[in-house]
Amino acid sequence: MSLDIFGDINRTEEAMRAAKAEAAAIARKMLANAEAEGLELIAKAEKEAEAEVEKMLADADRTGERAASELASSTENKRAVTRTGVEKRLDKAVDYIVGRIVNG
Which of helix, strand or coil describes residue 1? Predict the structure, then answer.
């Protein structure tokens, strides 16, 4: 009877060691899977961030180009108005100078 008890204890201990080894293997596998999933999520987040940055840069470029175009157009309009005003005053100045020379 005591031999049966020792055999039962040995079989139970062996079963416990096998269960412990199996649990450790499952834990290692779960950890490896979790790490792989985490790395995939990080890579996905990096790609999404890069795409978002590219989109933001493209939007900023379009906004900058639009603002530069509007500013250039506005400057060109102001330059044309100024030139017209200067030409009118130049005509008046020439008339004045010629009148002073002629009327002397």
Answer: coil
